[in-house]
Amino acid sequence: TDGQIGAAVDIKSNNLDSSEVGYWATNHKPGIMTNAVLALCQIARENLYKSLYALVRTDNPKSIAVLEKVGFKLSTEGLPEKKDGHIYNTYVSSLNWLYLVKFRIYSQWTCSLFL
């Protein structure tokens, strides 16, 4: 409400074979980030991206929940990532396009994404 950006979602490259999805938010209202990531994934699919993945820290259950609700499948092993002088474990997640289509059809959620 003070004119600052409250959230962002992006695809980190134009590699249609495999690209990373990233997102962050300062406001954590339920469903907003899930809907934004879902909308971004739908746009990616319409623009012929074949595979999307995301990196998420193992100690970030809200972010993990966003990815799972959208249809990403978490890897079973965490990978080390160094950030701000600390080493964190991360999951690599990949998106199942079939699940995304089913989610879009049966979901009651809506989202507006301004590009």
UniProtKB/TrEMBL annotation:
Keyword S-adenosyl-L-methionine included in the entry's annotation: no
Any GO molecular function: acyltransferase activity, transferring groups other than amino-acyl groups
Residue intervals passing through the bilayer: none
Keywords per UniProt: Transferase
The protein's name: Putative acetyltransferase
Domain N-acetyltransferase, residue spans: 14-73
Species of provenance: uncultured bacterium (gcode 4)
